[in-house]
Write a structure and sequence with these properties.
single chain; mainly alpha; about 0% strand
Length: about 50
């Protein structure tokens, strides 16, 4: 990844099996476990961005 000059965030991963069941009719994510993982991922992104 050094050649690409990027800093990946490897954890947590957000994988949505049966994604059609995780969203409502307005495309809002409604699955609580997925929401928690997404929040963790966004927190990791914020932490990473503060280092640069």
């Amino acid at each position: 990844m050094v050649d690409l000059n990027i800093h990946p965030i490897n954890q947590p991963q957000l994988l949505l099996a049966r994604a059609g069941e995780k969203f409502d009719a307005n495309l809002k994510l409604v699955d609580s476990a997925s929401l928690k993982t997404l929040q963790s991922l966004l927190d990791a992104l914020v932490e990473c961005s503060r280092r640069f």
